[in-house]
UniProtKB/TrEMBL annotation:
<comment type="similarity">
    <text>Belongs to the EPSP synthase family. MurA subfamily.</text>
</comment>
<feature type="binding site">
    <location>
        <position position="325"/>
    </location>
    <ligand>
        <name>UDP-N-acetyl-alpha-D-glucosamine</name>
    </ligand>
</feature>
<dbReference type="InterPro" id="IPR005750">
    <property type="entry name" value="UDP_GlcNAc_COvinyl_MurA"/>
</dbReference>
<feature type="modified residue" description="2-(S-cysteinyl)pyruvic acid O-phosphothioketal">
    <location>
        <position position="135"/>
    </location>
</feature>
<keyword id="KW-0133">Cell shape</keyword>
<comment type="pathway">
    <text>Cell wall biogenesis; peptidoglycan biosynthesis.</text>
</comment>
<dbReference type="InterPro" id="IPR001986">
    <property type="entry name" value="Enolpyruvate_Tfrase_dom"/>
</dbReference>
<dbReference type="InterPro" id="IPR013792">
    <property type="entry name" value="RNA3'P_cycl/enolpyr_Trfase_a/b"/>
</dbReference>
<keyword id="KW-0573">Peptidoglycan synthesis</keyword>
<feature type="binding site">
    <location>
        <position position="347"/>
    </location>
    <ligand>
        <name>UDP-N-acetyl-alpha-D-glucosamine</name>
    </ligand>
</feature>
<feature type="binding site">
    <location>
        <begin position="37"/>
        <end position="38"/>
    </location>
    <ligand>
        <name>phosphoenolpyruvate</name>
    </ligand>
</feature>
<comment type="function">
    <text>Cell wall formation. Adds enolpyruvyl to UDP-N-acetylglucosamine.</text>
</comment>
<feature type="domain" description="Enolpyruvate transferase">
    <location>
        <begin position="22"/>
        <end position="442"/>
    </location>
</feature>
<dbReference type="Pfam" id="PF00275">
    <property type="entry name" value="EPSP_synthase"/>
</dbReference>
<feature type="binding site">
    <location>
        <position position="111"/>
    </location>
    <ligand>
        <name>UDP-N-acetyl-alpha-D-glucosamine</name>
    </ligand>
</feature>
<keyword id="KW-0963">Cytoplasm</keyword>
<dbReference type="GO" id="GO:0008760">
    <property type="term" value="F:UDP-N-acetylglucosamine 1-carboxyvinyltransferase activity"/>
</dbReference>
Amino acid sequence: MTLVGTNDKTLASPLGDVLEIRGGRPLRGQVDVKGAKNLATKAMVASLLGSTPSTLRDVPEIRDVEVVRSLLEVHGVTVSEGDEAGSLLLDPSGAESAGFEEIDAHAGSSRIPILFCGPLLHLLGQAFIPDLGGCRIGDRPIDFHLEALRNFGATVDKEPNGIRLSAPEGLHGANIELPYPSVGATEQVLLTAVRAKGVTELRNAAIEPEIMDLIGVLQKMGAIISYEPNRVIFIEGVDQLHGYDHRSLFDRNEAASWACAALATDGEIFVKGARQYEMLTFLNVFRKVGGSFDITDEGITFRRAATPLKPVMVETDVHPGFMTDWQQPLIVALTQSTGTSIVHETVYENRLGFTEALNKMGADIVVHAQGLDGEYRRVARRELEQAAVITGPTPLRGADIVVPDLRGGYAYVIAALAAEGTSRVSNVGIIRRGYEKFFDKLTALGADFDIVG
Ligand code: EPZ
């Protein structure tokens, strides 16, 4: 049995479920996409900033939400079921410091704990953040975050297993320019500036839809935030914020993943809750590859319109560009396009490693360390895996696969569903970190699989 997908043997030991997938069947049916993993988790952290309880709606039932819930609870926040299905009531009135052991035990493999810094410094004057987890798609530094927190007046000390911060005199407004429009660093500044004394100016900010939705949450709490053209955001600090009542925007990553599954398996999937505006760039590429879609107020139906699929050249970018999280499922579909496609990954330095497993399933993908534009780099880095050249169509055949990360893992499942023959996909627990009711949705779409471990 050949294990493909990663050379990291620790991943070969199943962290979660093992699926046996019998491929070659089109996926047809409906999936309901709930709130965005990468907004809901941040909005939960924002509840710490309020003096009264908050209600968050359309919260996805995923592990990343559970990690944030338990981190909030170890800090004394009461988290309970809200007044409708899929909602949470977050009451920060009992917020208090937490011990390192408790924090570390609950931080899990998420990157969200770094966003607790600002709210905890405002609340308690100090914070300890354990070393971060998250998908291994690059070295995922947090230098922009720490630099920003120092600009707000916090002292930041790196300790062996985390970061200790303090701000006994409180935090003041800052002038910050990000070297790169980092989503996390932008959220760090927003969650810190809203209660800092004075005005904060943030330049070269990320403006992803999830960022704008977080700004909406903070404005509901009483924050004063404005944004200007060319990525400039102004935040006027206020003394007090109250709770919010907010329905998270839909998860456009999950929606795009199911769309690519329809393309790759020649199926038809109605993604309830998907909205056109936040997926404009994805929809253009989807159409160019040979997909078609129907948009209604309730959601978007995705299907393959052209056979064979067509090749495209895509470069990932910050919003409003083609999102880096969308490239893995797209690459699986591009293995079925007639001709040569190129996907240029410009956001992360190691997000094309998952293609090795696709080649062992029969794909023809070459990854080049240089991007298409030679030496130019958005964020200066060392080793880069920058451009995947995909030549198709190549029939995929079943294989034994170990899931490497969230989006790559989902891409493997699409490949197994599109392949002829049977695949064993292990370490599927990682996928269920970010895709709610994953097995139920596969079943609803007619996928032929068993949970075997
Ligand atoms: C968020 O990660 C998302 N995660 C990612 O989704 C998403 O791919 C990414 O934004 C880009 O859209 C969450 O929201 C939890 P970044 P984040 O800071 O905030 C470099 C998924 O599958 N950088 O925008 O960590 C960094 O190394 C995940 O849901 C620094 O150099 O991404 C990367 O190359 C995967 N220093 C680039 O910036 C810093 O201090 C973009 O990272 C911070 C980032």
